[in-house]
Structure formats: C-alpha cells, structure tokens
Amino acid sequence: MNSRETALQILMEFEEGHLYSNLLLNKELKKGNFSEVDKTFITQLVYGVISNRIFLDFVIRKFSKIRLKKIAPPILTTLRMGIYQIYFLSRVPVSAACDESVKLARKYGHNASANFVNAILRNVAKTEKRRILDEIPSLDERLSVEYSYPLWLITLWLKQFGKEETVQLLKKNEEVPYQCLRVNTLKLSREELKERLTADGVEVQEGVVSDILYTNTSKNLLNSSYFEDGLLTFQDEAPALVAHLLEAEDGEEILDICAAPGGKTTHIAELTKDQAKITAMDLYEHRCKLIEELAERLGIHSITTLAQDASIYCPEYEEKFDRIVADVPCSGLGVIRKKPDIKLRVEEGDIEKINEIQKAILRNAARYLKKGGRLLYSTCTNTACENEDTVRWFLEEYKDFEIDTKEEVIPEKFRSGLVNGMLTLSPTHQDTDGFFICSFCKKR
Fold first, then answer.
1. Most exposed of 68, 108, 170, 431 (fewest Cβ within 10 Å)?
2. What is the pLDDT of residues 242-296, one digit of tens each?
3. DSSP strand pairing (253-256 vs 321-327)
4. Which pLDDT score is estimated for 217?
5. How far apart are CA 14 and CA 42, in angstroms?
C-alpha cells in the first residue's frame, strides 16, 4: 500500500468511529515500512482531511450532482483527499493529486467511480478556493466553511468573543504548535536536561513555566532514551500550571479526581518530591493503568490509582483531602489545534450535558475537601458555560468556598489572563492550549 492508500484506510476507519485519529495513525505507521517523508505525507493527509472536512464536503456538494450520503464511503474519502491536496498542499502537483485519486477510486470502486472522481477534481482544479468562499453571503457560515468548524460553534464564539477575536482564534488553531516538554525534576533540573538535549542536537528553549522546555525539533523524542528513562514527558504549559497553582506540600493527602492519563497527577508528585499521598481517580481500570505506566516510567511511587466514577459520591472520602484537582471532562474546544477530531465529535447539545457532569464532580469534590483545603477546577475548553458560569454556580451553591487563585504563582507573561480570580489561557493571547483554571479555598 502506498502513502495515499494508507491515509485512505486510516480515514475510512476513523469515519467508522472506532478510534481517535492519532491512535489510528500511530497504529498504521508502526505497521508499515514507511520512510520519514511518507510518514509526514500520510500524517498531513489524515489530519488535513479531518481538520478541513466541512470545507471539503462543501466543495464536493458544489461540484457533485450526487448527494454526499449517496457517494460510497471510499469514493467520498478519496474525493476529500484529492481536494485537500489541490487546495492545501502546494508542493503536490495537481496532476498527481488527480491521477492518484482516480487510481484509488478505480481500485475501491469501478470505472464509473474513477470517472466521477476525475470529473470533480478537474473542475475543482480550475476553481480558486477564494471564489468558492466569496459566494457565501453570511459571516458565520463563511467562517464555518473556510475554517471547517460546525456552524453552531462559530455562532457561539462570535457571540462570546466577537468577530476579531474569533477570526484570530480560528487562524491560530491552524498553526502547528511547538512541542512542550515537562522536565522530571525528580531526576534532573530543567537546565541539565536543556544542556543534554542541546548537546544531542535538539534545539530547545526555556518555557514560561519553570519546568517546561519548548522544541520544534523533527527528532522523535517519543522513542528517545530521554523519554524511556523518564527524564521528560509531554505536557502543554497551560495544564502544567495546574500542579504549580495547587501548591501541594510533602505529606499531604491529595486527590486528582479525573486523573487519566496522569500528566497532572505525576506533575504533582514531582513537585512534592514524591512525598505526598496522592490518589488518582478515573472512570475505568484501563485508564488507571495509563497513570500507573506513566508513574512507573517517571520513577514515581506516591500515587495510588482508583477506578471510580467521580460523579458518584464516596462517603469514605468526606473531608479526607488537603488538596483536590478537578480537571473535569469537558468539550475540549481549547485543544482543537492538537486534536482536530473535536471539530467533528462535539455537538451543540453535548456542552450542557457535559456541564451537568462537571457540576456533579464539583459537588463531590466540595465534600471531599478538608476545611482550609484547596480545590482547583480546570478545563481545556473556552465556553463560558463550562468555565466562568460554572464557577459562579459553585460559589452560589457552596458558600463555604471562596476563590483563591494565587496571582504570584502565575508566570508574569500569563497574568493578563487572570480576571476575577479566574485564569483563562488561549492560543491567541498566551500561545498555549485553550485552558481555564480557578482555585478555591474551603473556609475553616
């Protein structure tokens, strides 16, 4: 199988809803004997088609007399791939994009399928992308098509952020983010890891958060000895702030209530020198296993995992913990630039349902916290419903809590995101994941 056919297979399996694109991609790339160039091209095709699917389907509707639902899945996916190459991959000759797509259509369909694909792609190649977009009259629909976001989400963001901020966010989400490395400070300092990586030809620079390094290297650090030896893990600066703002201390009882895959849990362990008593709760055993594997790789021993539904109350945890992290399930709209699947998976009605789960988890966390303890609420999304509105609901519901987000613990570069004790970080303003953090103190 060549690179285009591999991408087609991955996208077909993704459309069937079995796995997330990154898992499917990693699985297929490990199976095949691909060059680095092929791996890069396959990755571009898979993520590019997923990230731009709304636009690609809009184009197909424009040029096809057959409705999308009537087009056989492999032929529809082949069309999406072909249009993506024509409009987004300038280094791919149009002739190659058309000819290779026709070959795929003939293999996965028949001669009529090949002729159908050929006709559409030839017409697409003659039509400028801008001309297609200029035919869309309304702002919200045009942004929806141009950047491939569901219309309901564009409408929500325009209402919440305004036109200028929304357009900036859409553009920023198209950029490839730099890679953030969190240094395992149980084993070495940031400066020591920086020196080692630099000596090994890996370009890095110090992040804003004290134990983060940035890199744009093409070197595969995931398969490096640095990773295998537990000297580093991958974590964006925004979620890395959670453990710092928690300000946990050695010997304290700490609960990470929605812990998998364990990034924040292990970070808390590192900052407490592996001397705290940390309970990492998550819904399923296999997710708890991910936490255990990460802790083992990093050389951490202070974490105990628990498979438990965080929305169901555990009476034995009543006022048991000194600190609690509630990094709750959310719509994930803040990390779209890293996980384009979210554009296609999250629906408008999901947010209200997710918010009910968030509130149920916060109700339990409020009861699990000792008087004088700290509860840190965080999400990787940017909707007011899941963030600011939920904080206001919590303070109204629980009068014995007050906001206690420490400005002095937040790096100066990020303090512009702190408003009324609530910290909002975004790709547009802080060049981080979209993230929300609010720290509460339980009155004595």
1. 68
2. 999 999 999 999 999 999 999 999 999 999 999 999 999 999 999 999 999 999 9
3. parallel
4. 72
5. 14
* SS3 (DSSP) at 412: helix
Centre a 10 Å sphere on the Cβ of residue 1 and count the other Cβ atoms it contains. 12
pTM beyond cutoff 0.85: yes
Q: What is the CA radius of gyration of the chain?
A: 24
Q: Hey, what amino acid is at 15?
A: E
- Which residues lie across from 56 on neighbouring strands? none
Q: What is the pLDDT of residues 86-137, one digit of tens each?
A: 999 999 999 999 999 999 999 999 999 999 999 999 999 999 999 999 999 9
Residue 260: alpha-carbon gap to chain centroid: 14
The tokens describing 423, both together, are 């910290």
Report in angstroms the alpha-carbon separations of 34 from 43, 84, 291: 12, 22, 31
User: What gap in Å lies between CA 280 and CA 302, rounded to an integer?
Assistant: 10
Domains of the chain: 3-134 (1.10.940.10), 141-172 (no CATH), 179-234 (3.30.70.1170), 237-442 (3.40.50.150)
Helix (H) or strand (E) holding 172: helix 163-172
| Long-range pairs, 248-251, Cβ under 8 A, ≥24 | 248/272, 248/276, 248/322, 248/323, 249/276, 249/322, 250/275, 250/276, 251/275, 251/276, 251/277
Q: Number of helices and strands (H, E) in the chain?
A: 19, 13
Helical H runs in 52-93?
53-63, 73-88
Q: What are phi and psi of 205, to 5 degrees?
A: -140, 160
Longest dimension (CA), the chain: 76
Rounded distance between C-alpha atoms, residue 78 and residue 95, angstroms: 15
Residues with a known catalytic role: 380
Tens-place pLDDT, residues 151-191 = 999 999 999 999 999 999 999 999 988 899 999 999 999 99
